[in-house]
Amino acid sequence: MTTQTQAITTGEYLRTRAPLTCALLTSLLFLAACGGGEKKTANDDDIGTGPRAPTPDDPPSVVIGGLLWDNHWAVNATESLTTNPAWVLRKADPLSGAQNNRTGNDTWRCKECHGWDYKGVEGAYGPGNSHYTGTKGLVDVIPQRSRKQIESYLKNGVFDPTVGAVVHNFGTGEPNLSDNQIRSLVMFLFDGGMIDTSQYIFEDTFNGAARGDATLGQSLYESGNGVNSCASSSCHGLDGRTILFDGTETLGSLAKDNPWEVLHKARFGQPGTPEMIAVRTWGGTDQDASNILAYIQTMLQ
Ligand code: HEC
To answer: What is the pLDDT of residues 45-73, one digit of tens each?
Structure first.
């Protein structure tokens, strides 16, 4: 099998790894079942032959919320030339003293501040991680809020005296997410999109071994839902090496470096990449995604 080297940047790594220098491109990770054969576009309606990835125009859903959490710019095929004004609120990493100096698109991504594990500073993006921002996690906050509160918060934001402006107004300010997209984010947060990832990943040290069953994961990886499979040669391939991230990182190594990112993308898909049909979209469970993660972690690097 030939290895296709693509300029794919994940910008993700465990806190124990040296920071990679290039994080310009948003992450591009094809993980779950890819549509068999031909490339699909967001407009292809192939429900008749198998599941299709959701498009931004679909009614609100947890899966769309998960894609937006990852990268709303990629979902909407736009980008930001500005840096999120709320970015000035971030703190320097207490261990290294380094500042997360990303700019533009990255500074607007929910995951960049609140994490792939939704635990913010209490999770994998805690002290020592190159994505450190000191932002609070949401896993413990959301149960104390109402959907209406959060819907308004995400749409209209709040005035922040330090910034001197309204921040977090994702619906009325940049990036102008539609009401349905705000609702998708609310569904993601309240209806089981955001989970406690320690159910699926050992988090004592945030070193991230998956708790799933690798044997079950292997068959899901190789056969998917019976229509689409992660292992097809136009997707990740049997050995997870068809697509290399950052030009070098295999699916196996990414799953070890950032299991939270891989779990999230396995569950919801890759924003802007409808070829990748996520586990949730083909009707699989989070446990299925966790089993796949466990299998991928056993792949040769
Ligand atoms: C630049 C970093 C940053 C980004 C990007 C970001 N947030 Fe936040 N978010 C924060 C900070 C800081 C707070 C805490 C504000 C506070 O406690 O006053 C917060 C608070 C929240 C809260 C909790 C509000 C409450 O009631 O306590 C929710 C929900 C939330 N963010 C969701 C999101 C979602 C969804 C996105 C992506 C669309 C997002 N955030 C993107 C920094 C960010």
So the answer is: 444 467 888 988 899 999 999 999 999 99
